[in-house]
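Design a sequence for this backbone.
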């Protein structure tokens, strides 16, 4: 059986370092907002190339906090790709903002920059770029639109830790970047965790206070804040794993390249990248009109796959008000995509077996 992602195997490579760091936390008896969090945030900001990084409780919280700190609400509109993971959209609507869905580009699965301008109205406040499946959005046109219409730009980097655009890492391409450290992400902890990157000192200070009960000083509350913090154990685990992120992403690239060079089944459309540095291959998404049959075939051959995602946000019961809408590109993606196994701990034989098995599929 080739598992989609063997998390135990992935994390056990760092067992000794993680053990040592967790023991030190047990000895110190300090569990929140301590030196582990401080050190990891410093290292993560340095890695992303930003001035600041803030540890928070999840990727959803990171997105929520960025919107909240800008004071957006009351029907303010935020542009977002229609095929993103639901969390991006939840963060917008839970702030009282309106998500404005824009179709993706079928070649990259990222928001189609040429469709954004039509979606801008006098109520538009921001564009949320989502670096989906591990590939950085081509930001140039988004920056130009933001400048023209005085909009903020945010990034959802939950699937793209370390991906680059024009030599800069994601999280450093906008006003603020939101990261998830959910276990299965390219940089994942052993529970929930999230982070925010920014170069804006004022924004950083505000985010930090809002995430800590709105308090900038103990027992003094500047904002009606929330509790969203990265704990010391998760921060220590992330700090250990951050040192290996580039090597892990390089191995992901190697496997993705192998797949793209060896899979040649005409029934299966392979993912494209506009630049090898742009993609960190969080998932390797192929497309075929007979997706469900393809998945059953692979399962029978012992290859575990996942659908990212089976139902688009506008077809979810939670957004019943959108269910009648039609986004044909998004719907085509959700009907046809399948993610093949790809992880830093997969070996060459496993990758070859996956490629050969895909090639033998007759539809
Ligand atoms: C995982 C993910 C999130 C949410 O992160 P959590 O840490 O699970 O809250 C947000 N956006 C995208 C694109 C994601 O993949």
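Sequence:
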């Amino acid at each position: 059986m080739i598992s989609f992602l063997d998390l135990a195997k992935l994390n056990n490579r760092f067992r000794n370092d993680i053990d040592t760091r967790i023991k030190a936390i047990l000895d110190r008896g300090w569990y929140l907002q301590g030196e582990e969090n401080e050190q990891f945030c410093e290292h993560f900001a340095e890695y992303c190339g930003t001035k600041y990084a803030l540890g928070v409780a999840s990727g959803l919280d990171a997105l929520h906090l960025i919107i909240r700190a800008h004071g957006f609400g009351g029907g303010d509109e935020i542009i977002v790709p229609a095929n993103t993971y639901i969390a991006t959209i939840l963060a917008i609507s839970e702030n009282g903002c309106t998500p404005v869905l824009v179709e993706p580009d079928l070649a990259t699965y990222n928001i189609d920059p040429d469709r954004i301008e039509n979606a801008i109205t006098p109520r538009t406040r921001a564009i949320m770029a989502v670096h989906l499946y591990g590939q950085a959005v081509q930001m140039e046109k988004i920056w130009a639109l933001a400048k023209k219409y005085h909009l903020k730009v945010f990034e959802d980097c939950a699937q793209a830790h370390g991906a680059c655009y024009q030599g800069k890492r994601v999280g450093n391409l906008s006003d603020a970047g939101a990261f998830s450290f959910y276990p299965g992400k390219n940089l994942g902890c052993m529970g929930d965790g999230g982070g925010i990157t920014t170069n804006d000192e004022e924004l950083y200070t505000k985010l930090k206070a809002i995430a800590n009960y709105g308090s900038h000083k103990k027992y003094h509350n500047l904002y009606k804040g929330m509790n969203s913090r990265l704990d010391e154990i998760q921060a220590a685990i992330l700090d250990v794993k951050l040192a290996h992120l580039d090597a892990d992403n390089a191995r992901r690239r190697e496997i993705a390249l192998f797949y793209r060079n060896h899979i040649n089944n005409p029934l299966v459309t392979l993912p494209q990248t506009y630049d090898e540095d742009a993609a960190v291959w969080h998932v390797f998404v192929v497309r075929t009109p007979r997706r469900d049959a393809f998945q059953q075939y692979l399962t029978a051959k012992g290859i575990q796959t996942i659908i990212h995602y089976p139902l688009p946000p506008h077809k979810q019961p939670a957004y019943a008000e959108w269910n009648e809408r039609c986004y044909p590109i998004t719907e085509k993606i959700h009907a046809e995509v399948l993610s093949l196994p790809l992880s830093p701990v997969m070996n060459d034989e496993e990758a070859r077996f996956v490629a050969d098995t895909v090639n033998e599929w007759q539809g």
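The longest helix spans residues 245-262.
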